[in-house]
Write a structure and sequence with these properties.
mainly alpha; 93 residues; 0% strand; 75% helix
Length: 93
């Protein structure tokens, strides 16, 4: 009687262990999914920061000409009329 009960419990334990390690939604798959979620969360945080920066830049550009002028000077190298442009070259490189 006890042997049958012991054998039944061991069989049940083996089946449950098999499902836990190799069945659907097993431990290995769950750890892989947790890692993927952490990786995606990191990417989402970076993109959210980028979106906030772009939103602030758009607000600056809509507000006035100062931001537009600053961007034109720094990125396009534009100068105002009657202004002299000096470019300094570092020769220590």
């Amino acid at each position: 009687m006890y042997r049958i009960l012991l054998l039944s419990l061991l069989t049940l334990l083996a089946v449950l262990q098999y499902r836990m390690w190799f069945g659907e939604a097993n431990i290995i798959e769950l750890s892989t999914l947790r890692f993927a979620i952490e990786e995606q969360s990191t990417k989402n945080d970076k993109l959210l920061l980028r979106n906030h920066q772009l939103e602030a830049e758009v607000k600056d550009l809509r507000r006035g000409l100062v931001a537009i002028e600053e961007r034109a000077r720094s990125e396009l190298g534009m100068v105002k009329p009657n202004e002299t442009f000096y470019q300094l070259i570092d020769r220590t490189e």
